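Fold this sequence, please.
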Amino acid sequence: MSEARLTVAVSNDFFKALNKLPEKSRGKVATFISKFRDNPRSPGLNYERIEGGKDGFIRSLRVDQEIRCIVRAPEEGNAYVLLWVDKHDDAYQWARRRTCHVNRVSGALQVVDVESAEAAVAEAPEPFIAAAHEPSATPPNNQAKSLFKGCDDDQLMLLGVPEALLPAVRAVNSDEALSRLIEWVPQSCVDGLILLADGRSIDEVIDELERKQPAAVDTSDVATALGTPESQAEFMVITDDDVLEAMLSAPMEQWRVFLHPSQRRLVERDWNGPVRVLGGAGTGKTVVAMHKARWLAAQLLEGNKPGKVLFTTFTRNLATDIRSNLTKICSPEELQRIEVQHLDGWVMQFLKGQGLPVRVFDENGRKACWDMAMAMEDTSLGLDRRFYEEEWKDVVLANSCRSLPEYIAARRIGRGTRISRQNRAQIWPVFDALRTEFRQRGLWEPEDAKQAATDLLLESSATPRYASIVVDEGQDFDPASFKLLRALVGDPHANDLFIVGDPHQRIYGKPVVLSRCGIEIRGRSRKLRINYRTTEETRAWATAVLHGLDFDDLDGGTDQTSDYRSLLHGDQPLIKGFDDPADEQAFLVETLKQIESDHNDLSSTCITGRTNKAVEKLAASLQSEGFKTRVINKDESDDPSDPALRLATMHRVKGLEFDQVFIPGLDEAQMPLLHELNQRPDQVSRELFEQQERSLLHVAATRAKKRVVISYSGKPSSLIG
């Protein structure tokens, strides 16, 4: 056997199992794997067959008296795969149920638990079959037809379905059955099954997922199988000891190493222009964006090309979190080529560098400017100050209006109060005076500052500031932001813009159309559909909060939620109502104490509030009950080593995740926030605000990995029924 040809791979599941072992055992496993890699055929490894196992290639290896590694070891050949690690009895139980084979159509290596998959489908409730007008139209035995009846076996296997699971997949006749099944199938086939169930044709799905059948597949060649994109989502080939050490020293970061095939295709690909990626909560958008930034930086280094990659996001706190996470997946050289910046912060630095007087806005300064400007108001129009404030933001700033003719020509989509051309002429003096007052004080609205920066960049003949730009939370960016990003990266070129977002999580601003900002994404739009964070029960509830609302796709179309699914299952969100706030508080305290006793601390539990005031009140009351609390404020990252209970506003938890999320105080005055709703000048504005409130609740609930607990006293919020 040639050592050069030896292949040792580790599965994603192995790392998950390793992370659950005590620290002392993890150290022994690491030492064992290093020795195993040196010589996997050493007689001292004590290979043992799995009695009653379904796969003769799966064996057990002794780590110590208690711990066993489960490995796929060939009778002949040089490819070894570490599949699982656990205590003796648990390891053997896991191994007995699994098979590990190469898919004869797709060529990918797949680990399958056939019994669990078949049981999941069998346990799903029978779908309701409505009575047909003609008796002959009812399926025999009142059974719904398979969701995949239009596909042959080889087509399903090309999508990643293992041959052994074809009967289970064929038995799926409802959305509920599919939801249960996808927990047990390889991740590589989940996207395809979801799309087929959503009504896409097999040819459309194969084309969208870019699945191509290999010319030939040798089902005995595990080493070649490990090189497929589908296998790379599940297995990591160990190339040297440094890689091994890095992986074993940070098992918690395995999600950053293993990318789902659909994610990997987005990351490791040269695109010939801007790319837009949509994805629901928990689908890994930010993970993909970070890996894309790392990949782009690596391409610059490998090609000895100049320039940097800008990674930008809407809020400062998310930029802080991203900067910290990139250090975990990038080399020092790659980090040197990535600049993480909150876009407003970048603009302010740039304008100051151009010699313009720029001061950060504060609410007192803004109010003073508005007070001066409103002196120019034409009171005969009968319009209140709130109308002027919204018209300024939604029309003047959104359309970059700098003169009366531009304002008269501007689109007023989404504005409920109709005004004539003459009215606009009467209104404009207020806005003209406001902008003048801002300039005299060195104050800039973010939209105006971005437009000024864009103009300066376009007037310059200098080389574009960045080779590529990655945008996270793109749904919250306004047109001025996207126009600036286009100017920063220059004329359209390969790998210029990579934009990820989820319009269902839009809690700031209004929809944008990328094509109107100089960003043409036709043919380069993709979607992430699999939720890896939130249980299906929580995902479904959080999505139901948005029922009846339309959401854009960032380019003039709509984005549906019907093709999103979660791989995880758990408890339904708990909703508790109380007559008295004291009873709600007692329930919260009791539940938190139970979690603390079960898990030793509350570091993975977060209490959210609609406002800063609500969070402050919650923190004070919980501290009085003896809880150690940590309030996660804006512009700062969380410290995972702190064992304290987390508290944060619903806006601040965006981009974070916790095992449990509590949303207390969800009464009719808190969501939609009543005092804010009542200040809206017209019905259209009120409807837009309520939609943002629903999105905010959706965001808060989908931060939970395991459980969501919602409570209120008195009358509940209309958002929860």
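Residues 128-142 have pLDDT under 50 and may be disordered. The chain has five domains: 3-103+221-253, 109-208, 259-352+449-565, 363-443, 573-720.
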